[in-house]
């Protein structure tokens, strides 16, 4: 049992290391290009592909079934579905409001409600990608060993810090 717990900690540490290592090029691209994907989002936002890729790479050491279980939790776990839908719908609709309230973004204009609505599938896919890495992989493994509260604090803190370069880069 102790070996299993240590293995999960090693997997989580490897996951976080991979997330950072694979995200660095996106952070540099965002900082150097000065281009914006959307108001307030640099090119570093494309790092959204890194959490699921990192989770799959780490899970692959345990075999094909471990990889499939990452994706299976998205289809069977009802606890995250409402949150995913809420994020996918609210984020594109909130961008015009939030971008006007952040100093320095006031002069930006958002293309309109039609564009915001068309972004819902994009944000839905992004939310699913984050769920695969941060929730299905990292949070589950930390919670198994340290409890839900600790998992939320640890993974949530790393998740928040990880997003900063995409927002300010």
Overall mean confidence score, pLDDT: 77
Strand order in the largest sheet: 1-2
Count of DSSP E strands? 2
The gross shape turns out to be globular
**Distance, first to last CA:** 43 Å
Q: What is the string of helix and strand elements? A: HEEHHHHHH
Q: What integer value in Å does the Rg equal?
A: 17 Å
Short description:
This protein has 7 helices and 2 strands; from the N terminus they run αββαααααα. The longest helix has 32 residues.
Features of this protein?
169 residues, mainly alpha, 7 helices
Write the layout of secondary structure elements.
Blueprint: H1 2-33, E1 36-38, E2 41-42, H2 50-60, H3 64-76, H4 81-101, H5 113-118, H6 120-146, H7 148-168
Antiparallel strand pairs: 1-2
Helix pairs in contact: 1-2, 1-6, 1-7, 2-3, 2-6, 3-6, 4-6, 6-7
Structure report:
It is globular, with a radius of gyration of 17 Å. The chain contains seven helices and two strands. The termini are far apart. It has about 170 residues and is an all-alpha fold.
């Amino acid at each position: 049992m102790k070996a299993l717990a240590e293995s999960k900690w090693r997997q989580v540490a490897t996951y976080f290391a991979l997330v950072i290592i694979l995200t660095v090029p996106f952070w540099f691209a965002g900082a150097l290009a000065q281009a914006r994907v959307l108001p307030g989002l640099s090119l570093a936002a494309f790092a959204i592909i890194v959490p699921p890729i990192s989770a799959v790479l780490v899970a692959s050491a345990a075999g094909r079934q471990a990889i499939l279980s990452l994706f299976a939790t998205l289809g069977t776990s009802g606890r995250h579905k409402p949150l995913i839908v809420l994020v996918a719908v609210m984020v594109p609709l909130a961008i015009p409001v939030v971008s006007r309230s952040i100093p320095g973004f006031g002069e930006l204009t958002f293309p309109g409600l039609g564009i915001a609505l068309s972004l819902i599938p994009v944000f839905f896919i992004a939310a699913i990608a984050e769920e695969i890495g941060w929730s299905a992989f990292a949070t589950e493994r930390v919670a198994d060993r340290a409890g839900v509260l600790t998992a939320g604090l640890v993974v949530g803190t790393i998740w928040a810090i990880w997003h900063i370069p995409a927002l300010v880069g």
